[in-house]
Design a protein that fits this description.
The structure is a homodimer of 587-residue chains. Chain A is α/β, with parallel strands linked by helices. A seven-stranded mixed β-sheet of chain A has the order 5-4-3-2-1-14-15. In chain A, strands 6-7-8-9-12-13 form a six-stranded mixed β-sheet, covered by helices on one side. The first copy, chain A, has helices at residues 15-31, 56-72, 90-93, 159-162, 171-177, 195-210, 276-294, 308-321, 338-351, 361-370, 372-375, 382-403, 413-418, 439-459, 463-466, 480-484, 504-516, 521-526, 531-543, 545-549, and strands at residues 2-7, 36-38, 78-86, 98-106, 109-115, 139-142, 145-151, 182-187, 214-218, 220-223, 226-229, 233-235, 241-244, 251-258, 263-264, 300-303, 326-330, 354-357, 406-409, 431-432. Chain A is 38% helix and 17% strand.
Chain lengths: 587, 587
């Protein structure tokens, strides 16, 4: 039995366009003799649809679109489509109003629905907000083959792999007891560094534990902050990967299931990215491309400071949109070094992007004069530093508004974490491309871009990178001086980042432990960090909450990004500290 | 049996300070002969603690603080404290890691825990993210009286009141079957217009249905976007309100339960606000006061345009913080009318607040010159309008940064809904005071302020308003011309809001139906609105999502505010419309 996997890149809420993608894949699959087509979780509306699910007209149109799609599909092809279904018992039994479900479309009709059983409600996920969990195992028979249907999280509860349960039931185990021949999964599993390795390791464990071949179809593409890496794959009963789709691109791949031996046969396996930097690069390029495109823009603008963050973002944007669609704006001040201009211009030349240069000294003087009386007798400080950043942000937004370019902001995760950034200044933008990329990773990405990426282009399958390279471009993409010089915001004479912050190697390790791994301050100190530095960093992170509240969406690449998965109060008095907060007697 | 209710205003995460509040209330209650003290939901950490619940040091310190509080409390007083408790079965059974619970403290120790059973996960609530529902009814015996303990949502599932179930179980019914004498509830129930009327109506239904006296203790105060109105109250078995605490202020009130007749006796009933405007005014004053105070600020700054929105916000800020702590900044442009200055100065005089005036023409020219080459040949448009707003926002932030005043933004809900506001411009601020107040309500609040509030000061109990009035102030607070003139952003000559938007009466009704009541476009048209206008408004709302994503927290006063209860994708193609989106055959 030939089975196709459509690794789709839906746009949220584009019901007609998403249905068209499914139909196109189905027609190709049918032409190639497939009997079954898997799509991805909520493939009809895109994942995550969020509160669109509360709009009655959205639900009604989705149901109509599904029915129409069933009629339009090749009649002989069974197609699994991700959609939502109203829960008829919601009002009577006090349940949630919808199911996150998979529809089996065949012979012009919706034949069955299979509901998602495990609903993630943590990190970026809010599924309990909308959905009631399905209570029954889901399987159907096709040409004598019993196929178990699961949706994303349903496969993420193997207690012998995790060493603990995340939910009471394990749908794989139940389906296995029912004797299904093949397990399929429709996913929208967001990317983070190393996620595909985790998926394959986890499902290898389940495939071998239950002696069960598994086909896993994952969404691809960027939807706001969330990136989906695709990498749909299949495992045979021995837990071997027998097929895999491309990372970070739409794909249509084929599996062959042999009913005689109840096993998946070897098929084409797309190469994985060679290293974490390659993976992150592709993720960010895809994320910028999809956000710009899905928001209806063609072009982007960004500020070029001559520093490494804006250099990386410019390279990402050029790769994502084409060099001709990126405008870099240089806005030197009297505090800017000469190299900030020369480095930025060299970068732009390497990338083939256009630039504009607008010195900001006249506007700085305008603000200084306007505020002279009010600020008389005060020292140069944060207010004056932020002014420079804000007037640059205002210029960039003027250009964005005038020409319809999307402004991309360039702050990295280390800065955003400790608040080393200006709200309404350099934080301006519709998308924060590298807001989840720690500064140390910014460096390694730039070094990889300059050396390894170029080298690897010769060595590996050309297709794997060809959609992810700036055209035209000359290597090294990032001028070496940008990588070599000490990072500086250049908002006052002689300023460098390390005047205010610990070295980035130290800062990033503390941040990873605190933000991503939820470690307590004492645990971080026990890992070898200085207590005073740990407390300083955590204090900065805590106090910068108000800035992050107003940040643009940032592309998520780590296990915990600031954004929808980070929900902190602002007006809070809690400050974690290595000093054990022994409760004082309250008298 | 004398029972006290401590209507507390906790600061999120201020474990020591919140414990001190509980101790202070307990000492007063004990001195007055109380046997039992109720506090509010999660009174130890404040509600909602959000992702602080993921920090291990926060949980550890909370447990230590609770144990210390138990030792510090008057030993003979039973005290119900809201806290969290780790779920020991989480790992083994795949459950959530915590319980939202009530600790019974007595004789120096924690005696019992009673877990919340119904966990709201909708609108602004995310309790399934953290908590496992309790499975057992919760009751304890004190001096022969059986007291059933419930937490907030536990009382919100009376299917005969709502006409439907929201959850499978109804804790009131179970406790009633177990024969409890008195039901108590620890709540953190957020304010929205008319919420207290709903609470009393709903609990009156339950009290009479089950013949059960109920004591309801509600949190008070502002925590970021959420406002808690207090209004703790008690109902006897006949469903009569027999006691009530003050609205929008901390309070300590006493109930008398007579075990001989199993009934609550009549006690003191604080007056309710006289009308919706009074209620909203108090809510907003409390919200601004608490946000500023809990963020560690004393003073606030805002832009005074001479328009009605900034007039209302200035009055709120003066009432919340004291007139001496509010700075109004006038930033006239060449497009500003004369009255924008005179009206703003008259307002400031009425409120007794300081002003600064900074004309922006020189800075506008600076930007125009800087952008002259790039913008050559283009028309004056959105870019130039936004520039004015952004340079004003930049000036306000410079003042905020220089003097440590919190910037309060002044946009109303109607503007924020349709995107009639400038990101990084007039949207700048740490708090958006009236972001959930529709424009029509802005008018009614100002009229109420000028007339009814003054009149009512004579008529009703002075205490009800004394904390909510600007000092010093002269009436009418809002200059009548500000209320009378047509609203305008004054960003180009002769501009008025109604050039771009439908009349506010129409706009606000459409918005309420679409945003708060989740009505489909066809339903809104059926209510009497023009289809083209409905589609225009919904298109504007949908396209402004990127602005709201980066907005400051806004004080929630309606059933659905933009903010934590509104979770929409940005890069989405869904646009609800009265044209039924009949799915086209996808060929």
């Amino acid at each position: 039995m030939k089975i196709a996997i459509a690794q789709l890149n839906p746009t949220i809420g584009d019901l007609t366009g998403n249905a068209q993608q499914i139909l196109d894949a189905a027609q190709t699959a049918a032409a190639q003799g497939a009997r079954l087509l898997l799509t991805t979780e909520l493939s009809l509306c895109g994942y995550p649809p969020r509160d669109l699910l509360m709009q009655p007209s959205f639900l009604a149109t989705m149901a109509e679109t599904l029915a129409q799609l069933a009629r339009d599909l090749p009649a002989e092809l069974a197609v699994l489509v991700g959609t939502v279904l109203p829960n008829p018992d919601a009002v009577h039994d006090g349940e949630k109003p919808l199911f996150n479900t998979t529809a089996l479309l065949l012979e012009g009709e919706v034949q069955r629905y299979f509901h998602k059983r495990l609903l993630p409600t943590y990190d970026v996920f809010d599924e309990d907000r909308y959905f009631e969990p399905g209570e029954e195992s889901s399987a159907f028979e096709l040409d004598g083959v019993w196929i178990g249907v699961t949706i994303c999280e349903d496969l993420w509860n193997d207690e012998s792999f995790w060493g603990k349960r995340h939910y009471e039931v394990n749908p794989i185990a139940e389906l296995n007891r029912q004797g299904v021949d093949l397990m399929v999964n429709l996913s929208a599993s967001p990317y983070s560094v190393g996620k595909q390795h985790l998926r394959e390791t986890m499902l290898r464990h389940s495939a071998t534990r239950y002696g069960q071949p598994i086909l896993y179809a994952n969404q691809v593409g960027g939807n706001d902050d969330l990136l989906f890496d695709g990498c749909s794959f299949g495992l045979n009963r021995a837990g071997e990967v027998v097929l895999r789709a491309k990372p970070f691109e739409s794909d249509l791949i084929f599996a062959e299931f042999d009913p005689a031996v109840d096993e998946l046969m070897p098929a084409a396996i797309a190469p994985s990215p060679d290293c974490a930097d390659a993976e992150i690069w592709m993720a960010l390029v895809m994320g910028v491309r999809d956000y710009v495109r899905k928001c209806g823009f063609q072009k982007a603008v960004l500020g070029l400071s001559g520093g490494i963050d804006s250099a990386l973002v410019a390279a990402i944007a050029a790769a994502a949109l084409g060099s001709e669609n990126v405008l870099g704006v240089l806005m030197p001040s009297p505090y800017s070094s000469d190299h900030s201009i020369t480095d930025a211009l060299e970068l732009a030349k390497n990338l083939g992007i256009q630039t504009q240069t607008i010195p900001i000294a006249p506007m700085m003087q305008g603000y200084d004069q306007a505020l002279a009386d009010l600020f008389a007798g005060t020292e140069f400080g944060i207010a004056e530093e932020n002014l420079q950043s804000r007037l640059r942000g205002t210029l960039l937004m003027a250009i964005s508004n005038k020409f319809g370019h999307l402004l991309i902001s360039t702050g990295n995760k280390s800065e955003v974490a400790v608040g080393y950034c200006t709200l309404y200044g350099d934080m301006n933008g519709g998308l924060a491309a590298i807001a989840d990329v720690p500064k140390t990773r910014v460096y390694s990405l730039c070094k990889w871009l300059n050396k390894a990426m170029k080298d690897e282009l010769g060595g590996m399958h050309r297709n794997s990178y060809s959609s992810f390279i700036p055209h035209p471009a000359s290597f090294p993409l990032i001028p070496p001086h940008i990588i070599a010089k000490p990072p500086s915001a250049e908002l006052k004479p002689g300023q460098v980042d390390q005047d205010s912050l610990p070295p980035y190697e130290v800062l990033d390790d503390i941040l990873e432990r605190f933000v991503e791994r939820h470690q307590a301050p004492d645990e971080i100190v026990a890992a070898g960090h200085d207590a005073a530095v740990v407390n300083q960093v955590i204090r900065l992170v805590t106090r910068a909450e108000f800035k992050r509240k107003q940040a643009a969406p940032g592309l998520k690449i780590t296990d915990r990004a600031f954004g929808t998965g980070w929900r902190m109060p602002i007006a809070s008095r809690w400050l974690p500290s290595t000093q054990p907060k022994a409760p004082q007697p309250v008298v």
